[in-house]
Amino acid sequence: MRTGVWLIGARGSVAATSVIGALALRAGLTDPTGCVTELPELHSPEIPGLGDLVFGGHDISSNPLAKKADTLAAAGIVPGWLVRALSDELSAVEKELRPVPEAGNQAATADLIGADLIDFQRRNDLDRVVVINVSTTEAVPEPHPAHADLGALEAELATSRTLLPPSSLFAYAAFRAGCPYVDFTPSTGARLPALDQLARRQRLPYSGHDGKTGETLVKSVLAPMFAMRNLRVRTWSGINLLGGGDGANLAEPAANAAKTASKQRVLAETLGYVPQGTTRIDYLEDIGDFKTAWDLVTFEGFLGVPMRMEFTWHGCDSALAAPLVLDLARLTAAAHRAGRSGPLSELAFFFKDPFGSEPHALAEQWRVLRGFVAGLGAGDQV
Amino acid sequence: MRTGVWLIGARGSVAATSVIGALALRAGLTDPTGCVTELPELHSPEIPGLGDLVFGGHDISSNPLAKKADTLAAAGIVPGWLVRALSDELSAVEKELRPVPEAGNQAATADLIGADLIDFQRRNDLDRVVVINVSTTEAVPEPHPAHADLGALEAELATSRTLLPPSSLFAYAAFRAGCPYVDFTPSTGARLPALDQLARRQRLPYSGHDGKTGETLVKSVLAPMFAMRNLRVRTWSGINLLGGGDGANLAEPAANAAKTASKQRVLAETLGYVPQGTTRIDYLEDIGDFKTAWDLVTFEGFLGVPMRMEFTWHGCDSALAAPLVLDLARLTAAAHRAGRSGPLSELAFFFKDPFGSEPHALAEQWRVLRGFVAGLGAGDQV
Amino acid sequence: MRTGVWLIGARGSVAATSVIGALALRAGLTDPTGCVTELPELHSPEIPGLGDLVFGGHDISSNPLAKKADTLAAAGIVPGWLVRALSDELSAVEKELRPVPEAGNQAATADLIGADLIDFQRRNDLDRVVVINVSTTEAVPEPHPAHADLGALEAELATSRTLLPPSSLFAYAAFRAGCPYVDFTPSTGARLPALDQLARRQRLPYSGHDGKTGETLVKSVLAPMFAMRNLRVRTWSGINLLGGGDGANLAEPAANAAKTASKQRVLAETLGYVPQGTTRIDYLEDIGDFKTAWDLVTFEGFLGVPMRMEFTWHGCDSALAAPLVLDLARLTAAAHRAGRSGPLSELAFFFKDPFGSEPHALAEQWRVLRGFVAGLGAGDQV
Amino acid sequence: MRTGVWLIGARGSVAATSVIGALALRAGLTDPTGCVTELPELHSPEIPGLGDLVFGGHDISSNPLAKKADTLAAAGIVPGWLVRALSDELSAVEKELRPVPEAGNQAATADLIGADLIDFQRRNDLDRVVVINVSTTEAVPEPHPAHADLGALEAELATSRTLLPPSSLFAYAAFRAGCPYVDFTPSTGARLPALDQLARRQRLPYSGHDGKTGETLVKSVLAPMFAMRNLRVRTWSGINLLGGGDGANLAEPAANAAKTASKQRVLAETLGYVPQGTTRIDYLEDIGDFKTAWDLVTFEGFLGVPMRMEFTWHGCDSALAAPLVLDLARLTAAAHRAGRSGPLSELAFFFKDPFGSEPHALAEQWRVLRGFVAGLGAGDQV
């Protein structure tokens, strides 16, 4: 079960932390804290091991992975001694990173991306390669009729340079190259009918969107608590202060809109109504990768008595995301091996804005995930 | 299914809020916010309706219920207009309240308590009476060999005035009079082997302990979140600032110890280890019935990165407890009707320190509760 | 020293709370909590007493003051029994309220406003009338050359209907009628060179802007703390969640911009540099007049160690503003009596965005205020 | 103005951070963030420069300073590169550290301490040596009549081994050796009439107690804010969670009592009344030197409206204390040079529990401190 993990945005903080962590785990230098798939409840021989993962990826940046690792160490996101101990392994991964190709039209660009994926798979003798988007969040794209039909899409791609947003072009190229696709960001990715047609035709699974790492994770347990106790949430307002690359990008109004919409979905679907309030995201360069989120919830109890709760979450986004990236690579690879195709709604546990109509309550998502893992052995092994 | 609800501590804030709320619901003057049994998921014809409840109780205080209601209205716990609208109904309940009897020994006192219960049941033509302890928290009692054996207990009670703490004496008297018993407080109640023997002999169910209304409720969803994400909780510390009668009593070190032990159980049982930290309770007269709890959780993520979360909970204890008291009366009555006897571990959803080895994660408790309600119809109706 | 207090926005929450409070204090029904001028340190025979104040005002609404008082009582901002006890006094004030006049041009409108002021003064035999703007916040107006010169302004007003924003038109009318003017809002008010010329010509004092009631009050003591300890503030971000009329208005982007600029001034002027971060204002209808503000401050200590502080402020805006409105009426009246004209920079203690270059540290502003009060007796009594 | 700084507890976190910081400042490797005496407002040629300080000290531990520095670097309290850059300078300080002497009686022990001080002064050709207690907090000692009279004290010391707590024995020895004394802890130190007599006889100044570094610092600006606005504080409760050596010691009930009493003084003296509530200190080993304090303040505004404020302070105690230790060494040395003797009440700015009746409001203390510095030149230079 040698499994390739191809990271879109491979030189970014999340990708680099994922790679460093996987290498450290393989070398026995750290514990699998934060890795959900390592919990006893999710143990399965159908899931590739951490030691089976081989990393590569695309990035528009050319900043060396070793330098990125030093930056992460200086920011307290990974231990410095670990970076020093893994320098050889990081050099090996560096050789598997490629610049993002660009050709005269998106069809040709997709061919170049696909060629990189196929080369990676052959060179490393991999059973399969999972493509995971961990690049920065895109704006919501303009709708286009060709997004809804695979034939029309393929015809248009031959001449257009902008029809698909980058995340969707990578999904298209991945599917064409026989690779499952995971979108860890709120970007469009595989979320277009034409791409779903392609994935099913190729018998490929995909999952997303938007890794659930902080404030929304907390919402996904607190909102069901209010619902189960029949307490009426009147308002739920939050602010996220974050720096780092993702923070800077989210300061763009369009990307911000994509993200905040994704963050509110859990309330409507868990409570059955939409309380007043919004979730804001503000960029604070100085705060770096350690995000602070503050939420205020006002609610009404018996006989209308007003009450309130606040929480502050101070988490390191890359350190929260990285182990989930490894989990998703392994689980999506296992789903592919088990013959699954189309969206993996059972992985809703990991996402703010999951596919399908799975429940948004974390505990329910956990049960669904356990069922998914338990059922892996029953599929057609590929 | 006319169901009596006999409240120990019937003139206290929780009892009075429960009574006012039930009367208001029956009169269509309020919504059942906070009433778990009114959620569609728990609807069952086996459960007595809110309109089937008839209230009575014991209290050492003789402060009129109407005066208590005014005090609650002044404190913002119940609406003043509601108290005025319900004055006749409150007078009717007033007539069902009795002072706590006291005889020369605990056996004789228990007989007097039992006589009050039986009179109440006959006078109101009730199918059954559920006794619920909502009086202030007792200190943990001195252990005694007779606590472990019903025969020895009955022999000793004939001469002792102190063998059983009050909550257990009420449980004893309730069981002798054929009444199920619920302990909403952390006091000993039915938690003695001799009383369990009595309950089973009488074919009576009981439930407890310590209603889960605030900080522990939040813990019971946050601790599973950390566990499901394989994040390691390093410390969990909290402080509860509360006034009101319960607050004053909890300022007593012995009662405080009983309560804080009850509050920490959820962490050990959900996480599988005990993080550093303690839960403190401080009395602040001025804060009244609106409790403020603050918790700090420090945890470790991938590669050992330290992170933290804080929450503040500002809730009205009586308003949070009262609808649960109604839920427990109705569910315990239904269990009795269905022929259940012994501890009702399926009601763990409601308690900080539940009977049995049910999970402490709220979502799991919710599933167990739904199963309990769904199974009610299958029992032997009595 | 019979002193008129003419409120622009007289039927709003701040105005109504000011009036109810002043009437309650005169009747001995409450304590002067929140009234700065009642502190022993500011006692002076030069300042009119609370009993000397007579209220009137303009409002575009015609909602009766008694009805507004009931609304305030229902929201917990004023005690209901107080409103009932003061019904006669409130009816008397009701008779002194007028709709906002409107004529064909702003010169004529100003004449009508002035006539209302002069009538009020004569009818009540008042030594002077202080005009105070407590209406909702305006957008920042378009600049116009006539704002800078009194002659040009008066010429233009004869034909224009929009040259001055309402707050400035009231200031103009007040000055023409011989009345000092206070702006409790961030609106333009007297902050135009032409109006300053008019005030000085008329020998009238004025003060403003934007009452310092919550988050900014806290900033004005915390920012100096960091400065005095030579700790370097890296970021200071805040969010204000508020409902009520002011909240709804501040949801307008232009008014919001005026307000947030006013809120950040204290940091730059106290610290000597501008930390990263912004102050947001979000409207939450359900939260009513009780504002919740949350601020995060990250700072750097010795050897660059990063540290942080958060605070949450949960205050009732009208109850915080109302006693300051009374203070400002009394102090501005005393300044007028003492012969002062032009901006009263010594009243910076009360404002987020004060006139002049007075310090923004609250303790320094307090010293300046004490000096101002101490010096009142030395002026030319008028 | 070569000035010796003799640290009691020289191998502890505060002392080591002070030494590393002073060496780094002298070497131009860091900025004086956190050093109050480096602010322009306190600049004075009468105060010894940071480059004039020479360090030595006593400690019962023999853990090398270099090793302590590594521990501090690992905990994020000082930068690791700084420790490496300063290794030679740290070795030089290591040579000036001594074990705490112990003889058969306290008079003889004091002689040995004094001999260490005099040796240090001669060996380094110092104008004076300031002794600063930064060791862990002691319990409040048993009162003894000899504490009140220098003659009686000296007579008793010749035979007793326990008459004085360690902090007071060091103060006694310092005064006998002609050294000013500063107590940065809440321990007794020079706070005995007999020691005051000795200091005055020797013409030596002293200062203390209990460095104001975190929660109490914030209290000292917030409490005056409430007072200046005539808002009535109803309750003020806090909890401090801290690890490190000081935290472990404060878990001892007696030391905890000494500390919490010191922390509440600011409220009573600033507000003029004592609000309900207490300040708790809990030990959390895992939290290390980064303390988290949470405070809840409930207050009453105009017409009795209840409001509230919370704050969380997350600070590194050693990094907050260390620059103040340097400030106190320099200011106390300057006071000695200026001929001052007895308690330096003007240094209240630095302490939770200062000498004398100086105001507890930080801004007032700042003004007093500025006056003190400005007046230094006028004394008798020694």
TrEMBL record, chains A, B, C, D:
It comes from the Bacteria. GO terms for molecular function: inositol-3-phosphate synthase activity. GO terms for biological process: inositol biosynthetic process; phospholipid biosynthetic process. Residues 214-318 form the Myo-inositol-1-phosphate synthase GAPDH-like domain. InterPro entries: Myo-inos-1-P_Synthase, Myo-inos-1-P_Synthase_GAPDH, NAD(P)-bd_dom_sf. Gene3D superfamilies: Dihydrodipicolinate Reductase, domain 2 (3.30.360.10), NAD(P)-binding Rossmann-like Domain (3.40.50.720). Belongs to the myo-inositol 1-phosphate synthase family. This is Myo-inositol-1-phosphate synthase. It comes from Streptosporangium subroseum.
